[in-house]
Amino acid sequence: LPEQITLLYARVVNKTQVLLTWKGVQQPNIVYNVYRATEPLNSPERIKNAKLIGQVQADNESFIDRTITQSGKYFYAVTVRDIEGNEDVQLIPDQSYTANPVSVIIRRDVFVTNITATIDEGALKITWSKPDVDVRSFVIYRHTQPIIDAQTLALAAKVATVESNKLEYVDKKPVPGSHYFEVLAILEDGSIDTTLKPDSNYTTKPVVVGAPIRLKLIEASEYNGLVKISWSYTGSSGSRYFKLFRSSTAPTTSQDINDAFLVDVVNVTANEYTDSDIPAGTYYYTLVPETYDIDPEFKIVKGINCTAEPVKVTRRVAAKVTPVLPGPEKEEFKKPEVEPEKEEPRGEVKKEKPQQKLLSTPNVNRIIASTFYKGKYESCIDALTEFVQNANKSEEVAKANLFIGRRYIELKQYKAALKYIMKSDVAKYYPKEAKFWRDFALSRMQ
């Protein structure tokens, strides 16, 4: 019989292919036979039943298996056949056959199915069915809206990591709110398959923990040209961010609100807001959820979500301070190493003005509210660029740079967006937003 090869080694290349290398034999007129199976090829019978995937001439000592079409664990063997057809199939582990398998993952296979999320006696239970291939573990995410793409996944909160032999997760003390969930598989190489399938690996209907947030009362009062809007609410579930509108007439429909002036996006838990730089006139204020225009049950009720009486402003006064717009959901994020953006409640009390729960960010939020949230791309960039040139406070400049970058993303000008999003001041004051939008822009440039 011919000699056997030695030092057979197999490793995955290009994600779905396997490279085999070995030390050949010094014998003329031979051919190397390459076999593959899903079990160790440690007997002549298994070699006989294995798939012959290639033949290599004597002057080569490597082979690439490009024929794998299903995810799995694979074993290999390489035999030597001489010119007379003789072949030694009694092989040696880790010399002429691999004793340990290589794992190949075909990405389209690796996502969980049949996800469910339910509340039972106050406990949250999430279940799913495993993929067709082996995985290392599962990771569960939570968000206030369906996790339908990379953007919402980046903003979602990681809930837990579950071992691969478990297909459910139970939280006996779930976070109050209206939540959507997603379960992703961590593959054996440590990567995560982010294929997203509705009602397979992410939920499309919310699970409500606790009573939903509802306004009970809204009032407004004027003092020296400024208007203080205050409100109260009940409940804890659902988005905490509401839109505050100003109009000269009392709105009665969603379209009336759409036509009103968007003052700001506020955190409802702050319970108050001070409006400034208001033209002289008589105004109503309306506070509504961000999704008011797509909620079939939404109603405008005077005294509840719209001021019952108008407030009169006789002179225009610009405030020295204005509220900070809320960012994405911050629940369960670890604290960044760099100085973070100030967390909610957004209204912190300034020592020099204890009566106002506001942060010192003059004008920038009003520019963002009147341009960014109105979809006015070019005017947003122009206004914020002019603001940056004249501003003297680093946090305000950072916020303006962040939103300039986001506008360029809306315009699909990703290279231009990165010039602003990757500025050091944005990373300092808004580290999570900077990382997300940077990764988002880079992914679109590839």
Runs in which pLDDT lies below 50 for 5 or more consecutive residues are: 321-362
- Count of helices? 9
Outline type: elongated
Strand content: 25-35%
State the CATH superfamily name of the largest domain.
Immunoglobulins
Helix content: 10-25%
Largest sheet: 4 strands, antiparallel
Q: Please state how the strands of the largest beta sheet are arranged side by side.
A: 4-3-6-7
On the 0 to 100 scale, the average pLDDT is 84
Question: In the residues, how many domains can be counted?
Answer: 4
Task: Tell me what the CATH architecture of the largest domain is.
Answer: Sandwich
Question: Strand pairing plus helix content: what structural class?
Answer: alpha+beta
Q: In CATH's first tier, which class of the largest domain applies?
A: Mainly Beta
Would you report the number of β strands?
Answer: 23
Supply Rg. Answer: 31 Å
Query: Distance between termini?
Result: 54 Å
